[in-house]
Amino acid sequence: MPKAYLNNINKKETNPVLVSLRSYAEEFNVPVINEEGIKFINQVIKLKGIKTILEIGTAIGYSSINMALNNDVEITTIERDEGMFNIAKENIFDNNLENRITQIFNDALEVDESTLGSYDLIFIDAAKAQSIKFFDKYKKNLTKNGVIITDNLLFHELVVAEIRERNLKQLVAKIDRFNKFVVEQDDFDTYIYHLGDGMSLSIKKD
Ligand SMILES: C[S@@+](CC[C@H](N)C(=O)[O-])C[C@H]1O[C@@H](n2cnc3c(N)ncnc32)[C@H](O)[C@@H]1O
Prior knowledge:
By secondary structure, the chain is α/β, with parallel strands linked by helices. It is built from seven helices and seven strands.
């Protein structure tokens, strides 16, 4: 399999903090971005000289800590689950990143986006059924030529599978709707890549 071949060749994460956060996520079934996805984002950050990031969906803080440890960036991250928010807070504190990662404990659809700043990158990684709402709500917070990255657009390949279970079928239909929506946004140059778990990169046209 080409993917397994490349996985063997590409270097694995060795930073003990990131290795331990990922193994915690695996042990407790917390969904976090996969290695290919976060590598892609970190390279976009470097290529584009991104300095400010808004993340929707913190979980335990894996992706925000990863971006902060690998780049000179400031991050605001939104999480609605109190348990996750508190675990992320500890992880961010343990790594002395509280000055660079600002946490917001709220539903991202309830946050007043006009109270937030402008961001070079918005990373959408929260409830998959709501991605269109997040995209529309937060696109105003992008800086000139800013980018929006959304993860899980293949939803573990289920987007292309035959599904019978009703709730899952509805969720997958909403992801499919987002995928068709995001490529049609005229004010963005978008492509959905077959990497990570399916990721869209949308560059704002200014
Ligand atoms: C896939 S996890 C985030 C993973 C994280 N970005 C990472 O890669 O390390 C999604 C998180 O989004 C949170 N979430 C879902 N819907 C949300 C919403 N409407 N507002 C804020 N957080 C939300 C969930 O509680 C969950 O912790």
